[in-house]
Each structure stands twice: as C-alpha cells, then as structure tokens.
C-alpha cells in the first residue's frame, strides 16, 4: 500500500542514511537520498522527452544513452488558480527533493512537460541553492533571490505547491524556506507566516466558506473533480470542519456529498441524497463505508461512478492510518465499477495521482 506520500527520502534515524560532503547535489547541508525508489520505472530512448540531441560520431548519428526515469508528483497551478498534483516522469537522480523543486520553476525543464492549462509556480530563473533535511523531518529549501519575484496573489499557492511537492516524501514533515542563505520567517512579497515551517496541515486550496468561527474548527482534505476539455483530474481542497464533529472519516464523506463551492469550477458526482447508513468502520488500515442506494448515482443498478470512487479513496487516504476503502450498499458488497469489473476488494490509493488515467 502506498499512502499519500508515495516516495521515501533517507530517514535520518536509520543506519543507512548517506551524507554527501562538500558541494554535492544538495550543497553543503545534510544530503537527502532516496533509498526506496518507486518500482514504476521507464526508459526514454534517444532522450526524446528530455530533448537531448543525438551525439554524432564520424558524421553518423549515435544514440544517446537511455535515461532512466521515475514518477513524481509536482504541484502546479491550473487555469482556475488551483494548486493541483500532476504526476510526471523525471530523470532518476539521488537529489530527489532538489530536482522536484527545480521542476517547479517557470521556464525550466518542466515547460515542455506541462499539461494543457497548467503553469509552473516558481518565478523564472529561480535556482535551488541547497536542500537540507533535518532530524525532526523539517526540510529547508534555499532559493536564489529570484524566488521573490512573484505576484502577491500567487504567494500562498507557491507556498502550498512547494510544501505539498516536498511532503510527498515520507520522512519530510514540514518545510522551511531560505533565500540566498537567509532564513525566512514570512514569505517575501505578501508576508505569509512561515517561521516554524509549513506542513500539509496548513492546507491547500483552502475553502473557508460557510465557516463562522474558524478557531473552533480543524482542517480536512477532500478531492473534487475538475474538467478541462477531455482532461479530468482531481483537486485537493482543504475544508474546515467543526471540532464538535468527532469522526474525520464521516466528516470527509459529508464534505464530498456537500460538493465544491459554487462557482469554483469544480464538480462532484455525488447525488445530494447520498447518505452513510452506518458509522464508518476502521480496522487495520481499512475503512468500510455503508451507503444507501443513492451512491449509485445512475440508472444502472449496482454501478458506482469512477469519479465518486476516486474522490472517496483520495480523500480518505489523506488521513493518517487509512490505507484502503471498502464500500457496501445496504450492507451488501455487490458494487460494479463503470468498466464492468466487480468492486470486490478494498481500493487503495493509486501510486500516482492525475496521470491522465487513474
């Protein structure tokens, strides 16, 4: 099972941690090296997607060495201004955190890979000077002065994109930022606080509509659907739920049923009369949800839509300890997916989110 942060950097507490001294790929700070790379590896022959020219020898074209790649989640900004994960193939490297940040720079290596309607988040010409993983799980990213050349309205989106991109690695808990070697207590343009570091708990695409007393709430992340032409992808949204709601699982399901904010451009496949018949059951990493018939949402008996299923799985596996989701209707596990396959087993989070196919 792969939870919401799929890949691992070398944990400082284990004996196999590798330190690179001097001016290595991570600069002079503590190095971060991937020790558990994903198994989904492909090879780009002739450097096609990397646009590396063929070498020539004696007037004839010579194939460049195949480049090994891995999947990475990069958080980009879509046409509606949402910060959205997109899974892309990047060249394999030991400097995984530094590379991920470099692929967030406008005009950088990501430009030829951007999905339609998306843009990179970091200002053009920004350089990643170093990345330092500390023992408490805080990662410190040091950027060149060009980092501060962005519009104020993009500040929180930039901070969210950096934070969620870096925290895909399991032992990264929060993010601090430096500019040219100087620690930042606030973001440089609009003053967003970052003194003690930023984590996923600080939210992404924050929606506080209909929240009267934010001090008596806590954050919860749910995934709604966005459609751009023929492209469908899932957008994480942080909602604030009342502290009086004790069950985060039921709260997430109810937020999905409520649907996205009106006018946001996001959509939901949940019917308004969908209800949980029983309290969610959690055991050994698996959540079982028992719905009424409205979860079908179509005239086809026992068929659950892919959008409903994916939104549930993505939203619930954001919560700590949840690894899979099992769905029943009126106590019976006889659902069928849109492709005609029986939904007979618990569903786990996909290795890669928003790849063009779920």
Automatic annotation (TrEMBL):
Which residues, if any, are the signal sequence? 1-27
Record key words, sorted: Signal
Q: Where is this region: Disordered?
A: 42-65
Keyword presence, Disulfide bond: no
Q: Which residues form the GerMN domain?
A: 97-188, 249-338
* Record carries keyword Signal: yes
Can you name this protein?
GerMN domain-containing protein
The organism's taxonomy opens as:
Bacteria, Bacillati, Bacillota, Bacilli, Bacillales
